[in-house]
Amino acid sequence: MDWNVIQTWFSKEFFMELGTSSGVFIFVLFLGYLFGDRIIPRLSGILFQNRIQNSHPLYKAGRRIIRLLFFLLASYLFLRFLKLSSSTEEFVFLSFKIISIILLTFSLVRLFSAVFETYSEMTEGLLSSASIISNVIRITLFAIGVLLILQSLGISVAPILGALGVGGLAVALGLQPTLSNLFSGLSILMGKQLKKGDYVRLQGDGLEGYVQDITWRSTTIRRCNNSTIVVPNSVMASSVFTNFDLPNKELSITIESGVSFQSDLEKVESISIEIAKDVLKQFYKTGEEKEVSFSYQRFGENSVDFRVTLPSLEFTDQFAIRHEYIKRIHSRFQKEGIELRFQLKKGT
Known about the structure:
- This protein is α+β, with helices and mostly antiparallel strands.
- The protein is built from ten helices and eight strands.
- The chain has helices spanning about 5-10, 10-45, 55-80, 85-120, 130-150, 155-175, 175-190, 235-240, 265-285, 315-335, and strands at about 200, 210-215, 220, 230, 240-245, 250-260, 295-300, 305-310.
- The strands form two sheets. The chain has a five-stranded antiparallel beta sheet with strand order 4-3-2-1-5.
- The protein is elongated, with a radius of gyration of 33 Å.
- Keywords: Cell membrane, Membrane, Transmembrane, Transmembrane helix.
C-alpha cells in the first residue's frame, strides 16, 4: 500500500474531518431521539386522543421509521463531511443509497400494515383486515423497492416493465384459477360482503362458522368444533351464503310455548319478560337494558300460545341463552302453578 495514502488517512486534516463528521452524526441522532421519544408521543396522544398505546403496532412502526430517517440523515451527513475521493465517494454513496432503499422499504411495509390494521379497527371492520389486503400492500411496496434499486444501479426499468407486460399475459393464462381466486377475494372484501370474524353459513350440511382469514387463494372458516373449512375464493364469491353479522351482529331468538286456558295471562307475560331480562343480564353485563318482545299468538286446541323474542349479540350465544331461558321459565312456572302446554301437530 502507498505510504502517502496511509499518511493522508492519519493526517491532522483527516482527524478534523472525522471529528466534524462524528459530531454532526451524533447531533442528528440526538435530534432524532428528541423527536422520536419526546415529540412523537405527545403528538400521538393529541392526534389519537390517547387511544393508541405505546405497545400498539402503529406507534412502534411510526417511531421505528422516524429513528431510521434520522439515522440515514446522520449517516449521509457523516459521509458528506468526510470529503472522500471521487472514486471512493461514488461507490460509498451508491452502497448507501441501496441500503437506504432496502431499510426504508421494510420499514414502510411495517408502517402501512400497521396503518391498515389500525384503520380497520377504528372503523369496526369497514375495511377488512384480512391478510389478502396486507399481502397486496407488501408485494406492491417490495416491487417498488426493487425497481428503485435497479434504477439506482443504472439498469433501465422500462424494458423490464415492458417484458413483464408481455410475459404477464402468458403467465395470466397459466395462472387463471389462481388469479380468479385472488380477484374474487378482493371483490368479496371491497363489496363488504364478508370480513374476518363474521359468522357465515354456506349451502350444505354443517358448512358454517367464523371467518378466520381471506387469503389470496381461499377463505378459511372455523367451525364451532374448531375444525376448519377451506373454500376457494372463486367458489365463495359465486355461492349463496348467509352472513349473520350483516347488517349488525344482533340476532333475534324466538321461543314459542303455551299455557293452559285457566292461566293468568297478565302474570304469564310479566314472568316471561322478567326471566328473559334476567337471562340477558347474565350474558351481557352492561348498563344498557336489552329489549324483550312478548306476544300471544293464538288459541290452540288446549293452550294459549305465546312467543318470546330475545336479542343475541353473537350467533353462538343464542344456544346458551335459549337453554337458560327454557330451564328458568319451566322452574318458575312450576313454582307459580302455571301449567305449560303445547299444541301437538297432527300426525305426531
